Amino acid sequence: MSDLVLLLATGLGLGALYFIAASGLSLIYGLMGVLNFAHGAFMTAGAYAAWLTMGALPADWPVVGRLIVGIVAAVCVGALVGLVVEVVLIRPLYRHHIQQVLVTVGLSLAGVAAAQGIWGADPRAIDKPAWMSGTTDVLGARLPNDRFVYVLVAGLLFGGLLALLHLTRLGLVIRAGVENRTMVEALGINVHRTFTVVFALGGAAAGLAGVLYSQYAGAVSPAQGGSLLIFAFIVVVIGGMGSLTGTAVAAVAVGLVQQLANYYAASGVGDLSVVLLLAVVLLLRPTSLKGATA
Predict the structure, then answer these.
(1) Residue 235 · residue 251 · CB < 8 Å
(2) Is 165 exposed, middle or buried (0-12, 13-18, 19+ CB in 10 A)?
(3) Nearest 10 degrees: CA dihedral of 70, 71, 73, 76?
(4) Is-annotated flag, keyword Cell membrane (predicted)?
């Protein structure tokens, strides 16, 4: 029983990380139709921003305090990178989807190369609060405390994004711009500015995912964002391209399947199981590749 509780808790925590990584990807594609392959570079930028910020703060600060400041820095850097990328590279290519893919893939590769050139290819250890490194006894299982943090952050992010899209004027403008951009512009609303905000929000979510994943891994590395991006894409496709709620459900399913398969089958089978799950979903519901709304 304790083993099952541990697997479910760790799978849920991993799924929460996947959701945080995939939420920005889903938001950008669902509302703007942009398949952002540079999302992994955004996550890497956030991870390194947090690592540099934590290292620059006084060593006598509590690790929790430095981590909070690092998270703020990661979110800000992710949002800034997303804003610049949208304005400079994506905005001229909104009607040219193939060029969008080529540009974002090239930016992803350039981001990895830049990180390797500046900080090297080896992982760099990042400080982790003592409480997050510890465990809590639940139903006889020793659950890692950091999983509680990931689940909490994912829940807050999910609720915040849904509230933004459905309860605010900005969300109304965003959804209206997706449905009928010409009409919204005729009303005097700057759709370009609104879409820039969406891209910045996606970048902020990516920066948050980058720093939390570095806490999960215990280090930052140039290829970290790319490896997380693979699972983020799988989650988005399984949940329905652009569906925020579907992305949340798919993230939990992927995290649980991966953990259960690794334990009950063999180490490494979890990744294969996730790919098989993706294949089954595409066979049974090929509309997953089409856009949806939150």
Answers:
(1) yes
(2) buried
(3) 180
(4) yes
CA max distance for the chain: 62
User: Residue 143 forms beta bridges with which residues?
Assistant: 136
Residue 2, both tokens: 């304790």
Q: Give 142-172 pLDDT, tens digit per residue.
A: 888 888 999 999 999 999 988 988 888 877 7
Q: What is the pLDDT of residues 12-61, one digit of tens each?
A: 998 999 999 998 888 887 777 778 888 889 999 999 999 999 988 888 88
pTM above 0.85, yes or no: yes
> In degrees, to the nearest 5, what angle opens at C-alpha 159 toward C-alphas 157 and 164?
90
| Partners of 219 in the β-ladder | 125
Q: Which residue reads 């029983």 in tokens? A: 1
Give the C-alpha separation, 181 to 185, whole Å.
6
Helix axes 63-85, 39-56, angle to 10 degrees: 140
User: Is 85 buried (19+), middle (13-18) or exposed (0-12) by CB count in 10 A?
Assistant: buried
Selection from 78, 90, 106 nearest residue 21 by Cα: 78
